[in-house]
Design goal:
11 strands, alpha/beta, Rossmann fold, 6-stranded parallel β-sheet, elongated, 13 helices, single chain, formyl-coa transferase, domain 3, 13% strand
Length: 378
């Protein structure tokens, strides 16, 4: 609804956030990913940037993270660009930005200024180190936030250096997804109170939150050893990755006793020689598992294990995964303008999310928002 109570003009969208307007301001990595997720969920998102597709590995229709919403190129500091940003923020339900602390304030676009103009505005801020604290103003990337929060230190085997899962944990899991959750939660609260608020989504905070189970295991005395000797970090033979005969790998996660027992049956290993929770015998168990997995290729192991209740799956690369029959049956990947990419998640029974190509320009979105493009805006 508009401020006078009349319905908002909208395009046809089916997601649960249809009718919600989001202004996405620049940034690389987690901020555009959050904008993508919000657009997938049906929000009417307009992205502002210094030039279309600006950022690391991002550009045009070939970039899935820019799908679902137009990018409007403008200078936030200029008279027309600044005025347009203010006009859009006046009409937005939420704004998300990924600059270092203080940048939006210096542009005259901070939460105090925009909140005074639009009291219902939810102002989502994503940074590496947060809006406060002695490191708040420093630059960093996913790997740095993992190092500080403890995730990277927990992600290594004995005698090996820590390893990271590309940029998925801090940038996307602990950062963008918690920004989306925070914005949606604040929008829900604003629908009751009529007041917006600032969402401070720090990737160090989110990364630490994702490590909650490790802290719980430590408190219970079940995570006492150095990295690489515990149940989820490669210490246990039943939660590990093993090489196959053809250079591939199998991931084993048979934590529950019945799944572990079935795995031993399928590997033709004697249960009495490999008691699951005898930690002193874990190194022996890993060696026995490694020897067995090295006797067959990945295709053979996939055929033998993946349809059994043994929690064992062949490791596939990101561009092999779409070919797996299960993911193909679920439609886990979609194709937009010739580019195969992950489909929206999660799924909704009544208001399905939808991946859409990026519109060629922002004029349609600006018209829906009741804003005229200034001279020179793309």
């Amino acid at each position: 609804m508009t401020s006078d109570g009349s319905p908002r003009p909208t395009e046809e969208r089916t997601g649960p956030l249809a009718g919600i307007r989001v202004l996405e301001v620049g940034g690389i990595g987690p901020n555009p990913f959050a904008g993508m997720v919000l657009a997938d969920l049906g929000a009417d998102v307009i992205r502002l940037d210094r030039e279309p597709g600006m950022g690391f590995g991002q550009g045009g229709p070939s970039d899935p993270t820019l799908r679902g919403r137009p990018t409007l190129a403008l200078d936030l500091r200029s008279g027309p660009g600044h005025a347009l940003t203010l006009a859009l923020a006046d009409r937005a339900d939420a704004l998300i930005e990924g600059f270092r602390p203080g940048v939006m304030e210096r542009l005259g676009l901070g939460p105090e200024v925009l909140g005074a103009r639009n009291p219902r505005l939810v102002y989502g801020r994503i940074t590496g180190f947060g809006q406060s604290g002695p490191m708040a103003g420093l630059p960093g990337h996913d790997i740095n936030y993992l190092a500080l929060s403890g995730v990277l230190g927990a992600s290594r085997r004995v005698g090996e250096r820590p390893m990271f899962a590309v940029n998925t944990v801090a940038d996307y899991g602990g950062g963008a997804m918690l920004l989306v959750l925070g914005v949606v939660a604040a929008l829900l609260e604003a629908s009751r109170s009529g007041r917006g608020q600032v969402v401070d989504a720090a990737m160090v905070d989110g990364s630490a939150l994702l490590l909650t189970l490790v802290h719980a295991l430590h408190a219970a005395g079940a995570w006492e050893g150095p990295p690489g000797t515990n149940v989820l970090d490669g210490g246990a033979p039943f939660y590990e990755v093993y090489a196959t005969a053809d250079g591939g790998h199998v991931a084993v996660g048979a934590i529950e006793p019945r799944f572990y027992a079935r795995l031993l049956e399928l590997l033709e290993l004697p249960a009495d020689e490999l008691p699951q929770w005898d930690r002193e015998r874990w190194p022996q168990g890993r060696a026995r598992f490694a020897a067995v997995f090295a006797t067959r290729g990945t295709a053979e192991w996939a055929e033998r294990l993946e349809h059994e209740e043994a929690c064992a799956t062949v490791v596939r690369g990101p561009f092999e995964a779409p070919e797996h029959p299960h993911l193909a049956a679920r439609g886990t990947f979609v194709e937009l303008e010739g580019i195969r990419q992950p489909a929206p998640a999660p799924r909704f029974s009544r208001t399905p999310a939808l991946a859409r190509p990026a519109p060629p320009d922002a004029r349609g979105a600006l018209a829906r928002w009741g804003v005229d493009p200034p001279g020179g805006a793309a």
